[in-house]
Amino acid sequence: MHILFTLKDYQTGGGVECVQQRLAEQFLQDGRRVSFFVMNGDSPDVDGAPSSAGGGSGLRGLLSSIVLLRRLIRREGVTHLIGAKEQANLCTWFATLGSPCKVIYSRHAALDCAEQKTGLASLRLLYALYLCGSGKVVAVSQGLRQSLTRLMPWGQPRIRYCPNAVITEQLLRAAQAPLPGGVPHHFWLGIGRLVQPKGFHLLLEAYARAAKQRALPYLVIAGDGPMRAALEEQAVSLGIERQVHFTGHLRNPYPLIRQARLLILSSLHEGLPTVLVEALALGTPVVSTDCGSGPRELLDNGRLGRLVNVDDVPALAEALLDSLDNAAPARHSVSEAIRPYTSQYAAEAYYQVWQR
Asked: What is the C-alpha separation between 317 and 219, in angstroms, rounded?
């Protein structure tokens, strides 16, 4: 078995990239041959998994990548493929036409994700295309799978759910490292790419609102992105700049997650927010918005963490205040809930999709 991951790009620290890397590492541990094909030429840092560059970006890059991927499949004897993100899925579909390869097209983002400039009509067309061949479509949460099957009821038998590979021994070891310099010892944490759909602007508003009622831990925001300057300016305008610490991008954010008093997810949209799984695995209480798919599923309808309405600053502020007095859920309940998100469980789920 030679498993090839196809991606549009490889952003270090990106959510999709992290789970693909962990899945690849598990496949390697299982004795599989693994490699990557990255359309824009980025190189994943996975020991034992060589990477090949595609043709670049744009239409010309897509056409070139299709040709290069088709040649690579034949030359290297690729038998199984996993596409991630739509350009890579589309490239994979064209490159495997007439091929006996077993292909999985994965969907990681919510169907209404504003960050992706693809409407529902275009998504229906794309996924109908994928399902016209012999491949399977994989959604990373049950809620996302249900959304896809509602979009294309006829494709339900070949739209499957596979949990993300999140929890690994490497992650648990990395979480034992010291905190980065400058981080306060008592803090709440928001983490992710600093873009509008992640809702950090709502988190700052809710934090400022709650801070007017009680003394709060510091708020650490870990990550980087195009909204960083605007968020820093917002913290100043809200008068909380001395209580909010921006770390920028971190290669190892797991000590922050492990030592946070609370992890807060304020997203407007999610497919499956892996940071919630990481927090639960590391024993950190969570508060999350109840966005389209993922959080309610992960938090067992609120049993394992507080859920609040999306884009509701007063409700989020209230949940932050309540967290000061409420304990984390029982450890045995959390352990059972996160078991499917171990790398071994996730890899087995992919094997079963290929075998059916």
From this structure: 13
